[in-house]
Amino acid sequence: MNMELLTQVLTAYGATGREGNVRAVIERALGAHADSVRTDAMGNLIAVKKGDGTGKRIMLSSHMDHIALVVIDADEHGFLRVCAAGGVPAGKMVAQHVAFGNGEMGVVGADGDAPAELTPAHLYIDIGADSREEALARVPVGEFAVAAPRVARLGEHRLASPAMDDRIACYALLEVFCALEDGMKNEVVAVFSVQEEVGLRGATAAAYSVEPDVGVALDVTATGDVPGAKGHLPMKLGAGAAVKILDGNMIATPWVVDAMLDAAQQAGIPAQREVLPFGGTDAAAIQRSRGGVPSGTISIPCRYVHSAAETVDLRDVQAAIDLTRAFVEREMP
Fold first, then answer.
1. N or C: which end of the chain has fewer CB within 10 A?
2. Backbone angles phi, psi at 227, to 5 degrees
3. 3-66+163-328 — its CATH code?
4. DSSP string, 28-42
5. Of the listed 104, 143, 187, 196, which one is catalytic?
6. Global confidence as pTM
7. pLDDT tens for residues 182-240?
8. Which among 214, 169, 221, 175 is positioned nearest to 193, based on CA atoms?
């Protein structure tokens, strides 16, 4: 595993709708591995590895964007007021360091009289300004803040970072795509999508233009392997790639699920079955495009999703890489 590249992908600034820095890192890494690379009007990065003309077109999609807080005003003392772009859990943001796209840094606080159940409206960002004028001169209305990028190793196999969702899958997709050999039956289109966190917007546009025969999202999934976990989720760290059965936005196409599980079994790749009663991935957008596209998701189990310490097991990441490659190399019905 290329830890230098992985760190670059994880730490590039890339708030939802502001994915340019991430796109630049990925495009450099693609190098000469793609037959073509383009950026569409939405900002999706789309790389194509041509097949021999006898197979199917498979769209693989991982999203580059990261949930964010967006500046909407500042008070007279220089504290920035914010709203959310994506599913920002307000309580998890309090006392976190955040970074803006223009290089400014801040710390998140909450109103002293806020209720126990915080919303983004109760949050403010302290950038060290003394007045409204200074604050908005340094960080204008409309600037996006994300949890400050960092990467921490937890033991031998685990890694924590604020942007694992979904940069770890962007890295996995890079590894898969760059390892593909010439002369494959299937054509593989890798989409590094934008604005997934605010409604699968990038993948919706990409699926329309790519016109895939089969769609696969690579994303993270929540786990049920921590103390007091709710929901009886079966996914856990260290048990392999997760093959999605359903989530809150999609029921995966049965033959795609079966093909993924069969590919894992035949290649000896550790895999687990994923049932997620909430959430969604780019696969839902692909599945609903045009007249419908057979679609599924290969997930990387992740603890503390949508927090500043999203945590994965690198063995699961490798399993997701191996399974994705094994799947796209199969003959599709």
1. C
2. -55, 135
3. 3.40.630.10
4. HHHTTS-SEEEE-TT
5. 196
6. 0.97
7. 989 999 999 999 999 999 999 999 999 999 999 999 999 999 999 999 889 999 999 99
8. 169
* 43's tokens: 């900002």
The answer to whether the beta carbons of residues 78 and 242 sit under 8 Å apart is no
Helices (H), the chain: 3-11, 20-30, 90-93, 132-138, 164-179, 201-210, 254-267, 282-287, 314-328
- The amino acid present at 55, given as its one-letter code, is G
Active site residue 331: no
68-147 topology per CATH? Elongation Factor Tu (Ef-tu); domain 3 (2.40.30)
Which two three-digit tokens encode residue 199?
Answer: 């409604």
The tokens of 4 are what?
Answer: 């230098």
Structure-token match 């699926």, residue found: 207
pLDDT at 266 over 90: yes
Distances (CA, A) of 93 to 117, 176, 248, 250, 307: 13, 33, 24, 29, 7
Contact criterion met (CB below 8 Å) for 84 and 121: no
In the chain, the amino acid numbered 249 is N
Q: Copy the structure tokens of residue 189.
A: 């289109």
The tokens describing 63, both together, are 């999203």
Q: How many Å apart are CA 284 and CA 208, to the nearest integer?
A: 13
Q: Measuring CA to CA, which residue among 198, 213, 206 is closest to residue 280?
A: 198
If 0-12 CB within 10 Å is exposed, 13-18 middle and 19+ buried, where does residue 134 land?
middle
Checking if the pLDDT of 160 tops 90, the result is yes
- The residues spanned by each domain of the chain are 3-66+163-328, 68-147
